[in-house]
Amino acid sequence: MLRVGLTGGIGSGKSTVSARLAEHGAVVIDSDLLAREVVAPGTDGLREIVESFGEGVLAPDGSLDRAALAGIVFTDDAARRTLNGIVHPRVAARTGEMMAAAPPESVVVHDVPLLVENGMAPAYHLVLVVDAPVEERVRRLVSARGMPETDARSRIASQASDEQRRATADVWLDNSGPRDAVLSEVDRLWAGRLVPFEKNLREQRVHRVG
Ligand code: ATP
Hints:
Protein name: Dephospho-CoA kinase
Catalytic activity: 3'-dephospho-CoA + ATP = ADP + CoA + H(+)
Number of strands: 5
Structural class: alpha/beta
Mean pLDDT: 92
Radius of gyration: 19 Å
Family: In the N-terminal section; belongs to the CoaE family. In the C-terminal section; belongs to the UPF0157 (GrpB) family.
CATH class of the largest domain: Alpha Beta
Bound molecules: adenosine-5'-triphosphate
Organism: Allokutzneria oryzae
CATH topology of the largest domain: Rossmann fold
Number of domains: 2
Subcellular location: Cytoplasm
CATH superfamily of the largest domain: P-loop containing nucleotide triphosphate hydrolases
Strand content: 5-15%
């Protein structure tokens, strides 16, 4: 199994890249999606959140009111730690299950927006960073996703810088141009199975020796 960590700033094109990799046959684990699944209605994750934060974080249909919860944890570090303590272990458990269920020969792509911020690079054979200039990302988030520009800019400011991500990348994907350009680049990388990097060779040697 080749474990690929996929990251990039908000709106850089992670989902665009991971969808293409999935078409090629990669097993994609989307950490944002898992973070929503573990607090979906009926889960014990949601039950614990309500126990900790009260019924006020529930929408009328019984699902989690993310805006209400964000309002609580935004300015309260202890509340944020409590929330993370509920969500993170569940996401980690699901991730472990999905990794374990992937066929031995598969390429597993783990889409983690905060991979660099959380120092997770050593967990992967290959870290793939998708990048696009900040102004282009803001344009895409505002036009394609309807995000208010101030929100887009403050989310970008709260994340690692492009330089920090580039320093962590084994493979760097430029998504500043048209979508087709980055998709062709993904196809090329896949054709070489994302290239046997030094780290992978090192690991193969370790396996052979072991
Ligand atoms: P997030 O961090 O919010 O999960 P992301 O990194 O997964 O975002 P995408 O959702 O793939 O990024 O892309 C952000 C937006 O920009 C989407 O609406 C997507 O369709 C659009 N987009 C991605 N790549 C391009 C491109 N090369 N040209 C134009 N629009 C693009």
